[in-house]
Structures are given as C-alpha cells and as structure tokens.
Amino acid sequence: MHAITIPEPGGPEALVWDEVPDPVPGEGEVLIEVAASAVNRADLLQRQGFYDPPPGASPYPGLECSGRVAEIGPGVAGWSVGDEVCALLSGGGYAEKVAVPAGQLLPVPSGLDLRQAAALPEVTCTVWSNVFMIAHLRPGETLLVHGGSSGIGTMAIQLAKAVGAKVAVTAGTKEKLEQCAALGADILINYREQDFVEEVRAATDGKGADVVLDNMGAKYLDRNVRVLAVNGRLAIIGMQGGIKGELNIGALLAKRAAISAASLRARPREEKTAIVAAVREHVWPLIAGGHVRPVVDREIPMDDAATAHRVLEESGHVGKVLLVVP
Fold first, then answer.
1. What is the pLDDT of residues 139-149, one digit of tens each?
2. pTM value?
3. Which of 107, 142, 262, 301 has the most CB atoms lying inside 10 A of its own CB?
4. pLDDT tens digits for range 251-268
5. Residues 64-99: pLDDT tens digits?
6. What is the mean pLDDT of residues 179-193?
C-alpha cells in the first residue's frame, strides 16, 4: 500500500507518499481500506519530530479515518467485511489501509457520505470526553470555546447547543466569528481586539464561564482561571500557547474551580473504547437527526498532505481539512 511517511522531521515538505508494507490486523482488530483521513494539530507536531506515536502504534500520521472494513482480525464480533465505518486511531490514518481496534470503530452516521465521516472521530471523542465526561457541562451553563472555528471548536459549539448550554467562542477574524454564530455560538469574541475575560463576564452578568475548553495552554492559563464562574471547570486539550504557565491557586480556591488536562492518543485501549461507545450513544443520534454535522473546510488528495499541513499552519480554514485517498 501507500502511506505518508516522515523520513526526517521538518516542514510540510517532509511528508512523503511512499510504498510501505500492508498492515495486518491483530487480535481484536479490523483492517480498514481508507477513503479519507483528516488533519489534526497533533499531526503537525509529529511531522516536526515533537510528538511520537505511542508504543505499538502505526508510525504514519493520522488520528482518524473513514473507509470500509477489508478484513476482520481474530476475536472480533459485530463487524463485517464491507461495512462503512470511521475510526479513532493512534496513528496510521494517512494511508490506504490501517489496522484499528474494533472498539474504536463507529458506523458512518446516516445522512453523511463516507468521506465526510472522516471529520468526526477525533473531534467528537475529544469534545465529548473533555466537555461532558470530565467537565460535565450541563443545560443552562455557559461554555467558552477557544478557537471556535477549528474542527474541535465547530463541534463543541454544536454539541453544547444541542444539550441546552450557552456558548461563547474566541476567533481571530469577523468571518470566522460569523461562521461560529451560524453554528449557534451566542457570544462572539475577536481575541485580537477584545479581552475574553471582560466579554464573557459582561455577557453573563458577571458570572463567567462554567466550562472552558482550551487549546492554548500556558498563554491563557491565568485568564482562563479568571474567566471561570464559581464551581467552574477548565479543560485543557492543547498547548499552542506554551507548556509552562503560572497558576494563581488562590483564585482557583476562591472559585472552588477545577482544572483537567487530557489528550486522546496515549490513552489505553479500554479508555478509548469507552469514549467511542459514549460518542456512539450520545452524539451519533444528534448527527443522524440533523442537529450536529461535521464542518469540512476542504478536501485535498492524500498524496499532497503537505498542502493540507500548510493550510492548518496558516489557520485560514474553518472546521476540518480532509485528506482523500487518490
């Protein structure tokens, strides 16, 4: 088969479409013939040499895919060759084939085509696990989403609105904020021109955000704590603004607030299986009912993955950038 390899870490040009051995499904795994994958910030870090795959995972980038089941490994029940699926991966999505634990498979939701489904696994699992399973967002509460126009952000807006929450978002342009509003965002904040702490407090009568979904890390840590409501929860899922920040524990104590930090890739198989099962139970009906949809910015041939990485680095996209198998 062909896959995107990274012979040496570097810029987008480091991504090479090359012939590699076919994967073989092991115990409890299925082999997927890939139709599409999607680009995530973690893929950019892996290309640069900063985010190696966990032990035993495919060396190729790609944390999600869609396609058809091509082979069933030993000990797998409930799936058949030819099933149209999407999957949460630890790596290997930038390829024509990938082996994946059966517990990380999801059926393609009704109403979506096979390629569109590649935009779902990573964002739905990230948002559901962090915002709902860990931070326990409830109806009537306010969620602040940093990077509201990203793949994660566009999904977080829709899921929060679907459960009856109020949503504030930050983004860097008027156009991106307008697209967030079209998805249901209530409070629109241009982070280049406005202070999100002041804007959220003003829009919530001084209360603040009950849950903050943060992709920035250190750069926003102090302000994220300040914007939290009493009993608020800060869920950190990224480090685009650095890895070391100063935490005002007094402010955290005064608000009886909590901070969590979690990624998906390195979690044990059992945890990923539980998250995928929760997503299938709670999110898939919302997609099938037309209440939630993947937001796809563009599709790019997988053998031109370098272009897709440049698109993410330039941050001109809204939603997900897909890589389709040529």
1. 999 999 999 99
2. 0.97
3. 142
4. 999 999 999 999 999 899
5. 999 999 999 999 999 999 999 999 999 999 999 999
6. 98
